[in-house]
Amino acid sequence: MKIASFNVNGINGRLPRLLEWLEASKPDVACLQELKSPDNNFPAAALRDAGYGAVFHGQRSWNGVAILARGAMPIETGRGLEGNLQDDQSRYLEAVVDGIVIGCLYLPNGNPWPGPKFDYKLEWFDRLCAHAQRLVDFGLPAVLAGDFNVVPTDADIYNPASWRKDALLQPESRAAFARLLDQGWTDAIRALHPNEAIYTYWDYWRNRWPRNAGLRIDHLLLNRELAPMLTAAGVDREVRGRPGASDHAPVWVEIAV
Where are the alpha helices (DSSP H) in the chain? Predict the structure, then answer.
């Protein structure tokens, strides 16, 4: 079973690129972030024609997450995180596909740091950690997939010195990510590629894609039930280099189920 995560950076504007990738990669499950589309404009018909059922949690112009399943319809089990009734941003969606709990997330960026956006990032991260612990305690195989907007270590960025004042590298952001791992979640890419320079995001500015000046901020975390089934993990890096591409590349795992 192949499970992927892809920040599409606008699903309607980049729909041809998304459909190309789905046809070439054929993930069984694809978690999408940054849809930038309200639900009534989500391209469900085009994805259905491509062989994918979809559940989605959209928002006009910003945010938005979706879970696709090849040849099936994901069974939605929740949207949003508990703990803040005033939070109306579309950043978390959960579904079950073939007995696996799929949590798709788009964590707040948090810039500029310091400030209220960074405070919101940490507050949202706290709620994610609380929900992730419930998934751990539940005992079903589960994955948290998405754009975490966290560079876990200096090994996950081309040049940490130039990003020290960015919210993605702050000690509090990294500590929150570490709290997830301490619950028993496995960072799939690092589990299989502990020493490689692997990136998932290249900013459009300053020629960063041709220079491979990237960051690893898109992650697939597997709980204790799912991690022993991990057989492969990688990034479809070439997708980032296509015309009109997202500034992210898809990241994926293969699970022996």
Answer: 15-25, 44-49, 116-138, 171-182, 188-192
| Per-residue pLDDT at 147 | 99
Contact 132/180 with Cβ under 8 angstroms?
yes
Q: Which amino acid is at 49?
A: D
For the stretch 48-76, pLDDT in tens is 999 999 999 999 999 999 999 999 999 99
Contact assessment for residue 93 and residue 67, using Cβ atoms and an 8 Å cutoff: yes
What is the DSSP secondary structure assignment for residue 148, as one 8-state letter?
Answer: -
Q: State CA 256 to chain mean position distance.
A: 21
Written out in words, the top-level CATH class of the domain with range 2-255 is alpha beta
235-250: per-residue pLDDT in tens?
999 999 999 999 999 9
At 76 the three-state DSSP class reads strand
Averaged over 29-54, what is the pLDDT? Answer: 98
Q: What is the DSSP letter of 118?
A: H
168, 174, 171: which is closest to 200 by C-alpha?
168
**What does the alpha-carbon distance between residue 241 and residue 192 come to, in Å, rounded to a whole number?**
24
Nearby residues of 9 by Cβ (< 8 Å), 6 or more positions away = 34, 36, 246, 247, 248
Give the pTM: 0.98
- State the Cα–Cα distance between residues 228 and 217, nearest whole angstrom: 23
Tokens matching residue 102: 């799929």
HSE-up (13 A, CA, CB side) for residue 30: 26
Tokens of 231: 């057989």
Tens-place pLDDT, residues 199-229: 999 999 999 999 999 999 999 999 999 999 9
